[in-house]
Amino acid sequence: MLSPELGHYALALACVLAAVQGILPLIGAHRRDPRLMALAPGLAIGQLIGLVTAFACLIHAAVTDDFSVQNVAANSAVSKPLLYKITGVWGNHEGSILLWALILGLCGAAVAAFGRNLPSALRARVIAILGLVATGFELFCLTTSDPFARVWPAPMEGQGMNPLLQDPGLAFHPPILYTGYVGFAVPFAFAIAALIEGRVDAAWGRWVRPWAVAAWCFLTCGIAMGSWWSYYVLGWGGYWFWDPVENASLIPWLTGTALIHSAIVVEKREALKIWTVLLAIGTFSFSLSGTFLVRSGILNSVHAFANDPARGIFILGLLGLVIGGSLALFAYRAPSLTAGGLFAPLSREGALVLNNILLCSLCAVVLTGTMYPPFMSLLFDRTISVGKPFFDATTIPLALPLFIFMGFGPMLPWKRAQLWPVLNRLWLAAGLTVVAALVATRQLSGVLPVLCAAAAIWIMVSCATDIATRIQLFRVSLATSLHRLRGLPRAIIGTAIAHTGVAITVLGLAGMSQAQHRIVEVPTGSTQTLAGYEWTLTDVHSEPGPNYTAMVATIEIRRNGQLVTVLRPSKRSFNTQNQTTTDVAIHTNLLSDLYGVLGDSHGTEGHMTYVLRLHYNPLAPWMWLGALVMAFGGALSLSDRRVRVGAPRRAASSVQPASTQGNNA
Amino acid sequence: MNTSGSTTRRRLLMALPLAGAGAVGVAFWKMLSGMQHGSFNPHDINAPVLDRPVPDFNLPGLPPAEGFGTAELKALTAPVLVNFFASWCIPCVAEMPTLMAFKDQLPIWGVAYKDKPDNAAAFLRHSGNPFARLGNDPQGRAGMDWGLSGVPETFLIGPGGVIRWHTATPLSEDIIRGTILPLAARLKTP
């Protein structure tokens, strides 16, 4: 039933439907023809059905080991565990582009399903623009990266996939990351629709923000998963390498973060409208360009994808159409958008503008660092590598003020604020920050880690203070406070939680700056001391796995003679690909990770020595925990009543300023 | 809205993103077409450095060894092998015996890359020190100027401080005997 030909056909059908979805509703919206506009949701759902069918066919081919499909033959093998046969579908170029298209189709269908209360013309335009983008990607898939191409004669056995990808973390990392990338297509489509209509107002801000927040949550989780994967799979003990592929995900995250903040200003105050539209276009453009750079091979990276300049040219053309077209429309229409509400520099709007400036500067810095090497090589024919020292020296000075303003920004009232009442509420936070800094100087070495730790405490206590003030904790009875807490808009609690998540991540980073490691070459039975623990290599033996054989080391870790844990790091040799991977062993107590890696072995039978890498990583889990907390905060704000009940009608005068006003007297 | 001057300025401002994206797009196009014609290859770590003068840098020594910089390399009259290494790098550890075996046939200058001086010194005490000069690059800044992709990385510098040969793999006896020594011999005789 689910043959590759059916999949190919379904993909082609989806592509045609997407093209129709991209054209007819736009004409309909232009001519105010309700029949043409009403086609949009049906077409979007039809396109999704086609893509789901195509994807199901590819999964079916992978699960049934149909090696006559070239993609399956090149990336799968009979001996591969079932889970990885399924997840391996998106572990390669062709499959991942199909996944990308599928998620884009999901976005279109989601707007069709959840956008019922949008004005019909706006909804038709948003869905149409998503359709146009989808057409491009599906054409790309069909013409240069066909996942359903057959080979004849079919090989008996596939070549297997890169063993590094045989890992549960990586199996689910791409779908989540792509949902983040592609999710920003929806704010992008809203921005283009607004430019076509020539109208951006508070209602638009309110419609676009939930989509941006949802995409942001996925992107946050996706980046955290990627970082976690490189931490425990690559076995280098590091968590972020400023690798171009990592930066390609960080850049849209930074602009996306700026977007979800500036959209608040559009929603509440009808200001920053042009800027927000530009951010929405920019964020999706960066998402697209990131993929392009990775797939075309322009940037050097450890993240291997089969590179092919021909594909690169197709994607570049696609990018030119999408990004160039949208920016041309922006240049043409944005000057006629009317400027919005005025505000004093010291106000919630002012703080959010500052947030945007800092986030975009960070983005510019990361972008510069990432693009400098290929541009230098192209323009001046010089090789340059840009690494950690550059990024450390440039990002931290920009991030620190961001953290400081994060503390009291949410407390400032709209329009015009006075600093004193806000600072007056923050004396506790300031005091605790100083205490934290003093404690940190004793615990941490280096100025920046101390500053970061203090900034994290500042953010946490300020967030708690903000919530406590709003529910009048200790000023009224506890029951009343709890009642007020339940009555608080979820968006406000979500903000506090997301900001706390940032603080947790920053604490984790500060802790990780104190990580210690040793590389030793030892025989079994020897003991090393690292960070107050005694690490004893007691045994190394071999164990068979499903499609590999493993050398497993046993490392007993003691503290003051007491057994803390036993680590079993291993090295896996994969039979089909003649490749080995290291399997890191990590013991965590949530305050620190004990991390062991087994390296090469030397010597002869009976006199073997083994290379061991031993790491002590304080607060490491907090980095990813913080990201989850951030995403949870975002999700919580999505469940806000104002989002769930639906958007307001376009007479946007009823938009209330944030419910903070009562507390500022 | 106000005067025509401010409207024009506004229009120009709004066109800036397009202009920027256009410039980047043209650059990407050139890179891609360069990759297809083979004139631009970001993955080929050899191409851009070969037959070029060494970059500007100056490294302090790792006592007791003397450091070196561009001036010393440009003053060379005979070829020298420059080897970037680190005590934390397993292939560098593996490479050391080979370097030790050939240090008398060709001078080797080392750079301790992103390494703690104590660790580098202890490592060389343990493995033996093949380096006639030894620069210390704890932050890896000189490595950046050299366009290092990792350690170990080795450059053969000819007279006058010109990079004549380069590899990013650990040196083996075969590479030294088969490639480096013959090349060095040719460079010596003008």
TrEMBL record, chain A:
GO terms for molecular function: lyase activity. It is found in: Cell inner membrane. The keyword Transmembrane applies. InterPro entries: CcmF_C, Cyt_c_assembly, Cyt_c_biogenesis, Cyt_c_biogenesis_CcmF. Residues 316-641 form the Cytochrome c-type biogenesis protein CcmF C-terminal domain. The chain crosses the membrane at residues 6-27, 39-63, 97-114, 126-145, 176-196, 208-230, 250-267, 274-293, 313-332, 353-375, 395-414, 426-441, 447-468, 488-510, 619-639. It comes from Acetobacter suratthaniensis. This is Heme lyase CcmF/NrfE family subunit. It is a multi-pass membrane protein. Residues 90-296 form the Cytochrome c assembly protein domain.
TrEMBL record, chain B:
The chain crosses the membrane at residues 12-32. Gene3D superfamilies: Glutaredoxin. It is found in: Cell envelope. Its main location: other. It comes from the Bacteria. Residues 48-185 form the Thioredoxin domain. Keywords: Cytochrome c-type biogenesis, Disulfide bond, Membrane, Redox-active center, Transmembrane, Transmembrane helix. InterPro entries: AhpC/TSA (IPR000866), Periplasmic_diS_OxRdtase_DsbE (IPR004799), Thioredoxin-like_sf (IPR036249), Thioredoxin_domain (IPR013766), Thioredoxin_ResA/DsbE_sf (IPR050553). This is DsbE family thiol:disulfide interchange protein.
